[in-house]
Specification:
Distance between the termini: 48 Å
Radius of gyration: 28 Å
Oligomer: single chain
Helix content: 55-70%
Shape: rod-shaped
């Protein structure tokens, strides 16, 4: 198939080599231009499913205009001229030459349904990538007045996209995305996290009776590995009903090997001897930070999966659902901590039918908690 410059709103300037879906779109459009009646065989896509403005405009024009008489269409280009005139309203760079090129590069017009399914799959991948990028962007937006509620709403929107893709591409095999998940980042407010976690540990050591009230906080919620280990020491001592003070916590830390990384016992004692505020306040702050960090890492995982065109739509669904399970787990603990239920976006029922099966759901695996 010869390379054809990608048309856009500004003209038919040459662009870097297009992705495979560009050629698939050309084949589909060529089939519909050559045999307009094949529109009856194409479903599951709209103009928004195409990767370029020119292709979207052409598909919209093809579906808007009345179909020509087959005999007349075979004799002249009248209908093609109408398609071009209509499409030019949205994509000024289109030419009659490009429409004829589309017809020429279409291998088999009868394969239009297969081409449409490929276009639909690629569009699903782009939708998932966009939703994941929105989630990550929201986590980074420091100007949001209600960060947890807003981030959870974006997570719900992402989950709705995943559900829609699953409806369009039913499972056939339990294959996970081949793409490795990105490593977790340090929290952007890491210094603040360190200070607040130290206050949490010191205040819990000074007021051990308050530890039971924050059972929703788990060691993995803390950003610093040493702090996570010390919190586990505190909760273990509290559960056993043993005495708690800086010395007993330090001894428990030694028994667990927490000082093997070079942490100075004297520094640990000093940190545990400087309480301030309340255990509940610092615990909630740590949990909020954990929720936002989990959402960010989930978004980045799904970005990585959706950014790999080798992943099939249902591979994306399996990987995305496993990643979203991490947010669901910390979300439940957040609700217990705050006594409120953040509003969830209602997931709209998918409007387009599911096509031929492409892959199968994998058994749920234990989700991996994002660490910092």
């Amino acid at each position: 198939m010869p390379h054809t410059p990608e048309p856009d709103e500004d003209g038919l300037d040459a662009v870097p080599p297009p992705q495979p879906v560009f050629h698939v779109e050309q084949a589909l459009l060529g089939a519909l231009l050559l045999d307009p009646h094949r529109q009856d065989d194409v479903s599951g896509i709209t103009a928004d499913s195409f990767s370029t403005a020119a292709h979207a405009a052409l598909y919209a024009a093809i579906n808007t205009l009345p179909r020509p008489d087959p005999a007349e269409h075979a004799k002249n280009t009248k209908w093609l001229d109408h398609v071009l005139t209509t499409a030019l309203e949205e994509a000024r760079g289109l030419t009659a030459t490009y429409l004829h090129t589309l017809i020429q590069v279409c291998p088999w017009p009868r394969h239009a349904p297969a081409y449409a399914r490929m276009v639909e799959a690629e569009h699903a991948r782009r939708r998932l990538l966009t939703a994941a990028e929105h989630l990550v962007h929201t986590v980074h937006d420091a100007g949001i007045p209600l960060p947890v509620q807003t981030v959870l709403a974006e997570a719900d929107a992402l989950a709705a996209v995943v559900d829609d893709i699953a409806n369009r591409f039913p499972p056939r095999s339990g294959v996970l995305p081949r793409t490795p998940a990105p490593p977790p980042d340090l929290a952007p407010d890491y210094t603040e996290a360190v200070e607040e976690e130290q206050l949490l540990l010191a205040t819990a050591t000074a007021h051990p009776d308050d530890i039971d009230a924050v059972r929703w906080l788990v060691p993995d919620d803390l950003a610093v590995p040493l702090h996570a280990g010390l919190w586990q020491c505190l909760t273990t001592l509290a559960r056993r009903g043993e005495p708690i003070d800086p010395v007993t916590v330090l001894w428990e830390a030694q028994q667990r090997g927490l000082l093997d990384d070079g942490s100075e016992p004297g520094e640990v004692l000093r940190m545990l001897a400087e309480p301030a505020g309340s255990v509940g306040h610092w615990a909630e702050r740590a949990l909020q930070r954990s929720l936002l960090a989990t959402a960010k890492h989930t978004g980045r995982r799904i970005e990585a999966y959706a950014g790999d065109p080798a992943n099939t739509p249902f591979q994306l669904v399996v990987g995305a659902r496993r990643a979203l399970a991490d947010i669901a787990a910390v979300r439940t603990r957040w609700q217990h901590a705050t006594g409120t239920t953040p509003p969830q976006q209602r997931r709209p029922a998918p409007a387009i039918r599911a096509g031929p099966p492409t892959t199968t759901a994998a058994h749920s695996a234990r989700p991996t908690r994002a660490t910092r």
